Amino acid sequence: MKKEFLDLGRQPIANAFLKEKDFDDEFLFDLKVVFDTESKLISIKEFVDPERIFNENYPYTTSNSFPMVKHFKETAEMLMKKFNPLTVMEIGSNDGVFLKNWPNDYTIGIEPCGHFAKITNDLGYQTYSEFWTTELSEKIKNDGHVDFDLIYAANCICHIHDLDETFKAVKNLLSKDGVFVFEDPSLLRILERNSYDQIYDEHPHIFSITALDNILINNGLKIFRVDNLSVHGGSNRIYVSHLPVHTFFRFRPVEMSVRENLEKEYDFGLNEFKIYQDFAKRVNKSKNDLIELLTKLKNDGKRIMSIGATSKSTTVFNYCEIDESLIECITDTTPDKQGMHSPGSHISVVDRESVNLNDYDYVFLGAWNFKEVIANKEKDFIENGGKFITHVPEVTVFS
Ligand code: JHZ
After folding, report:
1. Distance CA 347, CA 316 (A)
2. Which terminus of the chain is less hemmed in, N or C, by CB atoms within 10 Å?
């Protein structure tokens, strides 16, 4: 049974940055969030058709978030050392930041956005520009690929609607000793930090280890290790192997980290509906606090802009009904977002270089997950009396 606990209002596609001429045709949907009492999975109620999201216009590129480039290089080095895989596949390879760390003869990518798949194909990594399905896994087999020793996916599995289908397709291509490693935002960290803005069309599910453990086991896979990561405001890296129902598959002992994470989640109350009702109350308070703060500052004649035109800020701006009357513009390092307007709230997105930060009194951190990196880059703004605003874990002004 699915029980609804949060309503984030009418929302656009989080990464559908748009031109002024397209404002009237913008697609919107109801962003509501539900708890599955059986599997304990958190999902959005109304899924958005993936073709609407992941297409030739999809602008998010990992290579434009430089701290993530370092993260994926280090991750690849660690996986190489730990598992020494001969064959590697990445699901959701984006513009190739992770793939590039592997030899291209034995590494393939899966990426539905054609413009990204072209980049990695051009680099010599065979990339299937398709959505991840059992049908695609069959096609890859029929194309003559041997099973993969490492299947990796970062910020991708929680983007897929049908998880049983997803995991069946992984199992179909995972070698008998193989590991499936995936990273996604952590539900526990979202609840702890009140970072409700991780919820948007691209994230039809928000994963706990508890729910994943239930779903993976049903699909003949098991979690044998979990790493808690700081990226994207708190993510989990989940290591999965075949469930060894017979000796054909390698037995990987389940490490302590799995039990520790399951216990942490249980103790926090992730299995109980009440914890989600309490979260919804905190989310509502966060909205009221942010609107109150921005309105007061504006009434006091202060100027406010934002750094990081993130998927997350689409949720915040639309839920809190924040537009250019409160936040004058957003800067972002991604060229494809520049010159466009933010989804739903229609705030102009510009190149950081075109803005003198000292013309503003406050900067709202749309990319609060890069708070330290941004604060460090913008020391001059602080020295000139500027202040930052963040809403995570609660609405705060700091300098
Ligand atoms: P960032 C993305 O969400 C999308 P977003 C995706 N759906 C997903 O699952 C999550 O990641 C986990 C810019 N920036 O990483 C670059 C600056 O302008 O928080 C990016 O556009 N200046 C795949 O969009 C944005 O901010 C800077 O100094 O919420 C950051 O986006 C830095 C460091 C970044 O992800």
Report:
1. 13
2. N
